[in-house]
Amino acid sequence: MAGALQSVANIPDLRRRITFTLLMLAVYRAGVQIPTPGINGEALASFFEKNSSTLFGMFNMFSGGALENFSIFALGIMPYISASIIFQLLTVVVPQLEALSKEGEAGRRKITQYTRYATVGLSLIQSLMISTGLEGMVAPIGSEMIVINPGWSFRLMTMLTLTSGTAFIMWLGEQMTERGIGNGISMIIFAGIVARMPAAIVNTFKMVGSGEITLIFLPILLGMMAVVISVIIFVETAQRRIPIQYAKRMIGRQMYGGQRSHLPLKINISGVIPPIFASSIMMFPATLGGFVKIDWVQEVTSKLAWGSPLHTLLYVGLIVFFCFFYTAVTFNPIDVSENLKKHGGFVPGVRPGKKTAEFIDKVITRLTVIGATYVSLVCVLPTLLINKLNVPFYFGGTALLIVVGVALDTLSQIESHSISRNYDGFLKSGRIKGRR
Question: Which residues constitute the domain of residue 189?
């Protein structure tokens, strides 16, 4: 990784990609500071100061502080993620979408287009709910109204502003994926979390100064963070390597093949997708309960409050479900088995074809169980830190998992670009030129 980073300056294409990504992230962070008209900023800030350790704080973290400022990017990228979840689930159960997904690049572009339309629809619904809920809310300190001039003019303006902001973020993410480095959507979430970390660190030292956190406990907290980061890096880079043997083949008078290789499988194949998907689903009832003042809605919201046993149980269940679901969508043991068989490869001691597919599927299932357990333990860490030790939410496992996972993935892509560039240069320098 260090060698890849050192060679960035010597690779123009990679340098342009990194520069483009940083510029797009700068545009995103600038938009976070632009407030939506019609909001009393001081009243809203006091509300989030009171509710910073609840699910609103989590929503605010994923939006990079945009919700706290109620900026034009207040909805963040979550509507797009929710729409992606819906269409990934529908692809499994709707034959037409399943057929589209198998049509290659053209089919995927069509599903992506449907996802964009669904993102706009979800953004309109969520922005209407938020604007309606804000009209009836007052600041905990001073009892000032958060909305200056309530009414349909404010609601329509908020719907248009927030939906446009989400559509723009979606476009930024797609541009970063295509022309930058790393996955654009993940990079936007990564930037939002990293931008909130300095404030969380300052808040921690304030809590130490006020006596809410003892000075002796601070080194323990830092040590705990170092251990969690080390575990995340270890698991995210760990692999289960399945040995592959290629049969020898006689071509003319020469013997080819017979070499050994391996099939690398990550322990956490699904990466950071399950906690992001699970968080986006768990945010919806809390958002609904925060803005809709109906008795049964409030009762359900109280039972699903952040840190409650039911919330933790559902959150872990969703993480486990999405670990298995995303692994099943992205990795097909039958296709891998057929490709190995086509190229003369086999797993020693396992028959090619169906038996190889069953063996790989068995290994994948075991790895997914380990990966889902690891992701669940890391992601419930914030609940323990907040409820038991009174630690700010931003030191939680979900944020660290996303930050470390996206950083490792981005460094891996930088290294791949560097290796590809060096390999191309080697081929060009060693290419034999024909006669003119």
Answer: 2-428
